[in-house]
Design a protein that fits this description.
196 residues; alpha/beta; 6 helices
Amino acid sequence: MSETWLIMGLGNPGPEYAATRHNVGQMVLRVLGERVGGSFKRHRAGAQVLEGRLGIGGPRIVLAASTGYMNTSGGPAAGLARFYGVDEERLVVVHDEIDIPFDTVKLKRGGGEGGHNGLRDISRALGTKDYLRVRVGVGRPPGRMDTASYVLKPFAKAEAQALPVLLEDAADAVEMLLAQGLTQTQQRFHARAAGA
């Protein structure tokens, strides 16, 4: 298989969703795109892609954002994985996560999707859950607010002010994951999340 890494940032298309919690994966992708340089181009798999390297002599990566809705992320993920010859070991999905607090980044390989329709569709399309996830905490909805309504709302004012740092942290986590592997990256970011 290819030495290329495929990094997918999940979200929904269109300006009405651009600043919402559900689009934090695509926000992280833009930060990574600025680090790589170049511009995103339309790919026939139903995604915008940017090919490049992370750092001088760094790994070859493909940054990808589906041009469809969150719950149809699987087709583009599977299509791009086939096109670039990437197996699940080298697929990294960056997504919003309500089960961890805002301003927290956690990583894992495989496991459940926690009701996340984008992840569920990717797992179905790939036929496996055993891909890497960079989980960007957006916190749980307040009171009895519906989860779907919550993730489709923009960040609260205080969160919006802290958001640039969170996006940089998540981009750092992706870079470290590619360079040093899952265990070391978990140790660094999970210790920080625990207040260590």
